[in-house]
Write a structure and sequence with these properties.
Blueprint (H helix, E strand, L loop, with lengths): L15 H14 L8 E7 L5 E7 L2 E3 L4 E7 L3 H9 L1 E8 L4 E11 L2 H10 L2 H9 L9 H15 L23 E7 L2 E6 L7 E6 L2 E4 L2 E4 L3 E4 L3
Antiparallel strand pairs: 1-2, 1-5, 3-4, 4-7, 5-6, 6-7, 6-8, 8-9, 9-12, 10-11
The structure holds flavin mononucleotide.
């Protein structure tokens, strides 16, 4: 590894999300892992108890500056987001020696985004969104399979345990109201690049967000170098 990284010298990039976009593209192009857009998403319950899980980043709007992910609104993360309205996300590409942290307020994505993304998913995944009350206790594995079969029947899709389960299905499976997207608005972004002798580069960008319409108005990014 070279001693200096792309964040070591020179003027720091003006927009950290433009760098995140490039790093995501590089991770995708270099095929370093099956899900280069995987990020750990941390939320908190009303008592401040944290929980974390992996979700896929399914959108990055460098301007105005948010990440999009999709899930069940009634899941544990959905319930916690309803209470706290904030989250932290971490990307880590081990072989690229890079980490990105994003923190800020979270709002539901517009229904049109959720509808479009839901419609783009394989029909098996769309059925799953109907069949699974994500994060609720399940009576048994069999009860989940029953629920998937019931969803298939409801929408006229092939039974999930049949030979046709892998085939195409053109019928309509609408988005359930309990499933959709969120936007994590970037209030702070830290880019981390591994350096020699543990002198890593850490640059932290902050900005102020003010609620405006469905999203936020924002001040310019301010950058600070942090000790490793
Ligand atoms: C690579 C990977 C990608 C995942 N992507 C998602 C996702 O995009 N949305 C989602 O709801 N769960 C996703 N999961 C499952 C979550 O990690 C988690 O199990 C689920 O969302 C329930 O979390 P919760 O009970 O904290 O709400 C993914 C898991 C892995 C390992």
């Amino acid at each position: 590894m070279s001693t200096l990284t792309e964040l070591s010298t020179g003027t720091p990039p003006a927009d950290p999300l433009a760098v995140l976009e490039r790093w995501l593209a590089e991770a995708r192009e270099q095929r370093i892992q099956p899900n280069p857009n995987a990020m750990v998403l941390a939320t908190c319950d009303a008592a401040g108890r944290p929980s974390a899980r992996v979700v896929l980043c399914k959108g990055l709007a460098v301007a105005p500056g948010y990440l999009a992910f999709y899930t069940n609104y009634q899941s544990r993360k959905g319930r916690e987001l309803a209470v706290s309205g904030r989250a932290a996300a971490v990307f880590h590409w081990d072989v690229l020696h890079r980490q990105v942290r994003v923190e800020g307020p979270v709002v539901r994505a517009p229904t049109q985004d959720s509808d479009e993304y839901f419609a783009s998913r394989p029909w098996q995944s769309r059925l799953g969104a109907w069949a699974s009350a994500q994060s609720q206790p399940a009576e048994s594995r069999q009860s989940l399979e029953r629920s998937l079969r019931a969803a298939a029947e409801r929408f006229g899709a092939p039974p999930p345990d049949s030979a046709r389960a892998e085939s195409a299905f053109a019928g309509e499976i609408p988005r359930p109201a309990h499933w959709g997207g969120y936007r994590l608005w970037a209030e702070s972004v830290e880019l981390w690049v591994e350096g020699a002798a543990r002198i890593h580069d850490r640059l932290l960008w902050n900005r102020h967000l003010t609620p405006a319409g469905e999203g936020f108005a924002f001040s310019p990014w301010q950058v600070t170098r942090l000790q490793p």
